[in-house]
Amino acid sequence: MHYGLTLFPTDYSISPADLAREAEARGFESIWFPEHSHIPVSRESPWPGGADLPKMYYDTLDPFVALTAAAAVTTKIKLATGICLVVQRDPIQTAKSIASLDQISNGRFLFGVGAGWNLEEMRNHGTADPKRRFTLMRERVEAMKAIWTEKEAEYHGEFVDFDPVFAWPKPVQKPHPPIHVGGGFPGGARRAVRYGDGWIPIAGRDPITGHIADMRKMAEEAGRDPDSIEVSVFGQGPDEGQVKALADAGVRRVVFGLPPADREKVLPMLDRYAEVAKLG
User: Fold this and answer.
1) What CATH code is carried by the domain that includes residue 269?
2) What is the per-residue DSSP string for 151-208?
3) Of 38, 166, 209, 271, which sits 20 to 30 A from 96 (CA to CA)?
4) What percent of the chain has pLDDT over 70?
5) Strands 153-156, 161-165: pairing kind
6) What is the 3-state secondary structure (H, E, C) of 146-158?
7) How many domains would you assign to the chain?
8) What is the pTM (predicted TM-score) of this model?
């Protein structure tokens, strides 16, 4: 079992570099930063986590900038997007950002991806029909895979279409950084089986332990080795019983949730999570 941490990095939270140093010193395997480019004033789309959208969603830093800061002060901890809103990003430019970060970190990047829930936000980025966002996400991920692995990369899909291009650098990790697909069951699991290396359900929103066998069956039916798809549970709290149940069910990574708080509040939480995970 691997143990990671996730936090919305903001201008009032512990800095990404500071969090990365402290997490690495305690033996955590990874840190995961989310993203929202903006929150539309209309606030029409309901937040899946409850009635009121937390302030941190409005304030989060760009994940690639934050992860680069973390990479510069660490040597071992893995650096992940949790999640990158692929439907809101140009795939050619995002492929370069990821390959650059993988180079700078010497192959420590994990690519957590998702299509998002805020329909107005994605419309502002040009996703005219949010109902098709999962197809758009798949095509953009497939296009980035081509850019990372081919000398003359091209992709021709419904939404993403480009003739052969030269694009460097290539990632350190081969064939490319692992792709972890966010989302609940069955959609998120199905997408992970189709084009991912991992599945990221969110703690508390799904009976995850009951769906792992279902995901593995999906993988077998698709001709994939179920063990090739890591399950990472996101936003877990410090409940030792729940963590043990997840491990017994076959979860490969637990990502503990942190509030966007300052160093004085976050560091004791790191110590508590390290105790739950029995790190060090």
Assistant:
1) 3.20.20.30
2) SSEEEE-SS-EEEEE---PPPSSSS---EEEE--TTHHHHHHHHH-SEEEPBTTSS-H
3) 38
4) 100
5) antiparallel
6) HHHHCCCEEEECC
7) 1
8) 0.96
